[in-house]
Amino acid sequence: MGGGEPGGRREDGAAARPDALHVIILGSGGGPLESNITSLLVRSVASGWRRGSVVSVDAGVQLSAIKKILKKSQPPELGETEEHSLPHTLTTGPFAGLEVPYKKPLANAGHILYSLVDTWLITHPHLDHISGFVVNTAGLPGTRPKKLAGLPSTITALKRNVFNNVIWPNLSDEENGAGLITYMRLVEGGSLALGEGESKGYLEVNDGLAIKIVSVSHGHCIEHHNHRGSGSAPSGYGRQGSVDFTHFGPISVGMGSNIGMLSPRGGGRTGSISGPGTPYGESVQCVYDSSAYFIRDITTGREILVFGDVEPDSISLLPRNSKVWCESALKIISGNLAAIFIECSYDDSQSEDRLFGHLQPRFVDEEMRSLAKEVIATREYQRRSTQASSANSDRRHSGDLKSLADKKRKRHGSDVGAMLVRRKTSEQSPSAITGPTSNPANQLLSRLQTEESISPRSNRVPLDSRTQPSAVSDDSPRLSAPTSGLSLSSAHSPIVTDSPHIATPTAELSLGDIEMSGPVTPQSHVSPVATALHSREGTADVDSELKIDTSTDNDLPLRGLKVVIIHVKDKLNDGPSVAETVREQLNGYETESRTGVEYIVSYPGQSLYL
Predict the structure, then answer these.
(1) Of 113, 566, 600, 23, whose CA–CA distance to 295 is shortest?
(2) What is the phi/psi pair of residue 564, to 5°?
(3) Which residues, other chains included, contact 145 with Cβ-Cβ below 8 Å and sequence gap of 6+?
(4) Nearest residue to 160 via CA among 148, 170, 147
């Protein structure tokens, strides 16, 4: 679903899955209009409108946006007639079903923000993602602290540069603060100690929702200073993606400026970073950390993926989107990933050297095609794994039948042998038979039983022979490695091998396994297949290969996935709306790429049931 009301049917007439997640867009823009900057409210539909049931993803705008929504949806005579007496349950608008206690929209907005919202998930500490929260803390009630969550580097930036008793009072519960805010430093990629199965690594933030955070890149800094960021750290999951440089002194004010965020092709200067293992003053590339959140409905397993500001992998000095797509592919195949919220700050008229770590339609399409390839390759891996498991089962079944026949022959031989032994021993004196081990018949039977104990499974086929083509029947499917296009093959074919044991979807079932080059862990997420896909010559073959088997809508790899565009920047001129231009350009790319996604350009006050 993607409409403003829950329930309904799909466009193809089939019954839609029950809505699990509800998203309200408070701010859809990326500036410069300060009344419309990034902020989303998310709740589990099953949790209703209970206290603490809502989380906010970023907080560029808060109270003013909620007030504006309520002003349109509240009955004008609220609290003045018997029909609309207080408390009153709203029947229209994004907050339909919510019981409001006050007459004025602003008072009810405060009730929503301070009673229903308990946790703020911050993608990165730029002002257009935090300003609403910071200013609104002036009205925070003192009943219990609000949770402010993010990467450790994000929390450090907020603590040292915002809630520092200089820019804003220290309202946190650290360093003798007021105690109205408590920081939550999230583990990059999710904590392995949390959750089981598909929810492994997810942290429950309320009774209905669990989250997992992953870091992404948001341009690089051209300032020369001791600066937080990723530097040249590995791009896999793990804490190395978010380095905390608290002990190196205050962070330069250049951190929060978009002017310092340039795409590498713009020819800007390299940044400077000094951190653990890096000599002081040594100049290295300083990549600015942003993040993306997987938000999971605990009841149904349905998820959405919400990005902060992000740049395309193709021009990033530290490409990290691929690991997000690798994990997303499994969720798409299972039908659990309902929507991706991703920024598209500019239309395609913006020059590449002035993207400042953001996306435009051609790069959004590029990222969606990367995701589509991950889905295609993962499905192929699952198909091969199923075939390999079936082939192994058939071989084991054949081996069991052969073993049974051998046992029958051996038992027949042992019976004949025992009979002959009994004839011979019957002529001997009974006193000669002193025990079981001295009985020739028992010795013979013992030897035969020892031979039988050697199971055909004990004689394992060497790995090299199991990976040879000769071990596969002629009708077994194989994929040859084309010189161009989508390559899903490997020198080590996964078709004939032991049935793989998949421990967790995010740990072992990844695109690296399609190459059967070893399990891909969160620390080594970059898949060989993804590397091969992105290293092909030209883009014509990429597009052509992607369209294979997409003659019908049912074959589209991302069919049913909604991609909600956020963070569109206004141009402040009389020209066409940037949001509308972005929509047209994205739909144009989708016509060519045929990934199957549905693009939705968000707007303030929009309500999405997913």
Answers:
(1) 23
(2) -95, 120
(3) 173, 179, 180, 181, 182
(4) 170
Per-residue pLDDT tens over the stretch 494-538: 333 333 333 333 333 333 333 333 333 333 344 544 444 444 434
Distances (CA, A) of 98 to 50, 370, 387, 509, 572: 9, 40, 51, 41, 36
Find out whether 203 and 190 touch, Cβ atoms under 8 Å. yes
* Contact indicator for 269, 258 with CB cutoff of 8 Å: no
> Which residues, 6+ apart, have CB-to-CB distance to 88 below 8 Å?
75, 78, 79, 99, 100
| Contacts of 472 by beta carbon, 8 Å cutoff, 6+ apart | 391, 478, 493, 495, 496
Q: Which of 603, 558, 125 is nearest to 364 (CA)?
A: 558
Q: How far apart are CA 437 and CA 427, in angstroms?
A: 19
For the record, the structure tokens of 461 come out as 């086929």
What is the CB-side half-sphere exposure of residue 62 using CA atoms within 13 A? 27
In angstroms, the CA 155 to CA 177 distance is 15
* DSSP-derived 3-state class of residue 24: strand
Size of the chain in residues: 610
Closest CA to 286 of 248, 316, 310, 322: 316
The CA-atom distances, in angstroms, between 396 and each of 252, 376, 392, 409, 471 are 65, 30, 6, 20, 14
CB-count burial class (<10 Å; 0-12, 13-18, 19+) for 149:
buried
Q: What is the pLDDT of residues 329-376, one digit of tens each?
A: 999 999 999 999 999 999 999 999 999 999 999 999 999 999 999 999
Compare 109 and 514 and report the one with higher pLDDT: 109
Rounded Cα distance, 215 and 213, in Å: 7
Between 604 and 261, the higher pLDDT residue: 604
pLDDT for the residue 393: 75
From residue 370, give the alpha-carbon distance in Å to each of 289, 311, 396, 411, 487.
21, 14, 38, 60, 13
Q: 141 falls in which pLDDT band (50, 70, 90)?
A: confident
What type of residue sits at position 141? P
Average pLDDT, rounded, for the chain: 75
Two structure tokens written together for 347 = 């239309």
Among 45, 498, 1, 571, residue whose Cα is nearest residue 299: 45
Bridge-based pairing state of the strands 209-221 and 286-297? antiparallel
Rg, C-alpha atoms of the chain: 31
User: 152 preceded by cis ω (within 30°)?
Assistant: no
Strands (E), 263-347: 286-297, 303-307, 337-343
Report the distance separating Cα 164 and Cα 176, nearest Å. 11
Mean pLDDT, to the nearest integer, of 474-493? 35
Backbone angles phi, psi at 255, to 5 degrees: -60, -40
Amino acid at 452: E
- The Cα angle at residue 105 between residues 104 and 108, in degrees rounded to 5: 90
